[in-house]
Amino acid sequence: MVNSASRTGSVPSPARYGFSDVERAEAQLRRAGWWSDHGPQGAEPVLNALSRSPDPDLALHSLDRFHDVLGADWAELAAELLADPGLRGRLFGVLGTSTAFADHLVAHAQDWRRMRSGPHRPHSLDAFTAALLNAVQAEETGEEPGTPGGPEPALRGDAAISALRGEYRALLLEIAGRDMGHVVETELPEPSYEEIVAALSDAAVAALRAALAVAAAELRESGSDTVPSLAVIAMGKCGGRELNYVSDVDVVFVADGEDDLQAATKLASTLMRIAGAAFFDVDAALRPEGKAGALVRTLDGHLNYYRRWARTWEFQALLKARPVAGDADLGRRYLDAVQPLVWTASEREGFVSDVRSMRRRVEDHVPDELAERELKLGRGGLRDVEFAVQLLQLVHGRGDETLRSPATLEALRALGEGGYVGRSDAADLVDSYRFLRTLEHRLQLRRLRRTHLFPEFDDRESLHVLARASGVRATGRSSAAQLLVGDYRRHSNRIRRLHEKLFYRPLLNSVAKVPTDALRLTTSSASERLAALGFSAPDGALRHIGALTSGVSRRASIQGTLLPMLLDLLAGTPDPDGGLLAYRKISEALAETPWYLRLLRDEGVVVERLAHLLGTSKLVPELLVRAPEVLRLLADTPALAGREPGEAAVSLRATVSRYSDPERAAAAARSLRRHELLRIACGDLLGLVPPVEVFRALSSIWAAVLESALDVSVRALQHRTGDEPPARIAVIGMGRLGGAELGYGSDADVLFVCEPVGDADDATAVRFATSVVEQVRRLLGAPSQDPALEVDIDLRPEGRQGPLVRTLDSYLTYYDRWGDVWEFQALLRARPVAGDPDLGERFCRSIDRLRYPDGGLEEAKAREIRRIKARVDSERLPRGADPATHTKLGRGGLADVEWTLQLLQLQHAHRYPELRTPSTVDGLRAAVRAGLLDEDEAEELVAAWTLAMRVRNAVMLVRGKPGDQLPTKARELSAVAAALGYPSSVDTGEVVDDYMRVTRRARAVVERVFYES
What we know:
This protein is mainly α and 1013 residues long. 60% of the residues lie in helices and 5% in strands. Among the domains are: 148 residues, Four Helix Bundle (Hemerythrin (Met), subunit A); 137 residues, no CATH class; 168 residues, Beta Polymerase, domain 2 (2-Layer Sandwich); 159 residues, Nucleotidyltransferases  domain 2 (Four Helix Bundle (Hemerythrin (Met), subunit A), Up-down Bundle), CATH 1.20.120. The strands form 3 sheets. Strands 3, 4, 5, 6 and 7 form a 5-stranded mixed sheet that branches. Strands 8, 9, 10, 11 and 12 form a 5-stranded mixed sheet that branches. Strands 1-2 form a two-stranded antiparallel ribbon. The protein is elongated, with a radius of gyration of 38 Å. GO terms for molecular function: [glutamate-ammonia-ligase] adenylyltransferase activity; [glutamine synthetase]-adenylyl-L-tyrosine phosphorylase activity; ATP binding; magnesium ion binding.
């Protein structure tokens, strides 16, 4: 490699013309006759033009290949390159961009003449059609190609395909030359984006017509008496006359009558085969029933399908339908018939859910690692603009025929002119859409392959070439690349705000109480738009918007800035209406909180997370009104989701210990619990906290509340009597509290144990402890708007008839004399959670002989447990509950899994100490290590138990109140799915199927292990 600085003398180096590989460039220029030992040989116009091409090395290398092919004809090309700036611009613009067109020119050496200046064949549909028909030697007859009496190609089969392929690629070469010429020679006219995509679309339509003519000829040759009447309807970008250089061409086929169907299907499939081999893939997947449906239908068949079974996205696709080949009259009749259906689609049942599915499907197709570089499907990409325009057309086009254009930019301009989108917003989006489509075209030109992926941001070489091909000029490679990346991000970010610009800002204007020179939708138009975006009560939503933005205060101004983004985000949640109402209530409650709106305005992630929370959960907004400080944590993921449960518990106990008054202490404990409960709920709903950590954190904070209430109650009684406490008290967690597996709506199952201190006797200790416990239950059970703090002591000896507190010896005496097997089973989850830790530990050690009996469980007692479980299954399931989806008592639910483990613990924990754990998940894993369960069986039980727990939590979060049944209402089930972490596009039926599949497998394990069946 040689650079210009290393050369001596005054002879210039090829490096001055932008060549990187100087030695190769000099050799190639010498071969062309444009370089000698003294430098350029009068070839400065050519060299200067090469230096302006997107990739000078590639352009020169392609010319060098061409030089070898042309042979004696090279001199003619070289002379014309010197004399004709138009030829230089078009040829070097293409060769400096596209290796695919270089390959074409090597194979079709004379096609360079198509790039010369002078009279050119017009880039029109008729001209393209004539050129392609001429390539297969078909004489013009005045009839449409592929119809009776249409042009009859002389070439068939492989010969026709080869001829069509070469001519079509030559037509694309002409279009590319026109597209790229101005990049090299600035005096050449720069065609608009619309002119290029229209030419590409016309070339594709001409290709379809020529392919149809060849297909019809082959059909006649195969013995068919007549050519059937077939209309080819272009869809997608071809239908909108906005096709790329490389793209599938979407079509729908229509036959005139039932008698034509068989022959028309053969004709259509032959057309697809010929076009696929010669030009591009023809995709008929947008037909009724998609790929599973008939390739060709009659007009009546199409209409019957669209009227009875079509989804909204199919009418969205029909926005771009355009007859392009075959029977023109049949094509017009098809279009006239389907158009009324398109413009009433927004009135159809299910329109909102279909719209949401369309929106979500776009983003779901993009891998996270490619999202920022995806020109087409990524956020801020082309599909965002196209979808937004089409949705606005569906909503407003039924009453305004000016919006019914199939072309994206033409429709966008009409939306601006009609006042549905602000004019400046429409102009900005037109500009950004053109920019991204231009990048897409330049990327596709390289190898004539489908691609929508912007180069890696650190790939300076690719970025530099793409920048020059797109008309970005700068000094040095890095600066050109930086400019391009900056432009790309600027346009992409502008499009990312398209929903604010296209959908939501007009809604605010429509309810504003002050005049505006911007657009103002009518109330009915605004309601239609909100309904299209998923709001089931659009009039109510408009009232909320009006209340939030009314007046001229600074607060109203900030809300006017925030609401467009918030409405966009809420529209993607399961309950947009509930989310907007909750946002209004929170905003009104925090109206005088100075940092509230400022936080939302300055921290975009807070708005995004808040919208998801409000549109999914009723519990979160109820807590948020009373614990607004948690809002700040939404901007700090570690603080929101990274706090250790023990840390929060220590903080709560320390704060409450400062209060001597029980009421004030209880209020402080409630406040801190509310804060922690809300923090956990937010982290859970946002997918930032694993389920097991949610259970642990909820259990830890409950235990801390119990500890604090016990402590302040003891201190209060001590202060009132003036004596030292005559007893120490321990709180034993039972059930899910004992297993550190609480949910949001769980009660705290506990036992209270006391022990005399000093000279006090048992009776005195029990009286004191009972007074303390009654105080604890009163403090925690006081009415509150928060989730209940219910202390459940029904698992104590003698149940509700027994004393609230017993001494350790009294517990042991009861269990030894009267304890039943189900009580020993309940003790499996006993764990000290508050109070005197030594007493708690001694209690648990003392009951080990009962819950882990030597020799295991007697068979009679095992049968008794099974009998009790069967009775619970049949008697305690609520009336009307579905046992397949009841999380607690249903098949494969919590009780099934927990009783199965507990039976194994009673039977085998005396031999396997690892089974001695109150945790369900830990116990199941220990059963595998002990050889009592297969690993697969244990994992199925763990999966079912975890899912049932998560569903119970999700129901509590969504409804704001506990529930054990998987919801049946679509909106609630959708919200539960969101709380469980399903993607927004999931079918709610899939959620139910997943739950039933997981629990069905667990139930099979329960049948085998617990019931021994």
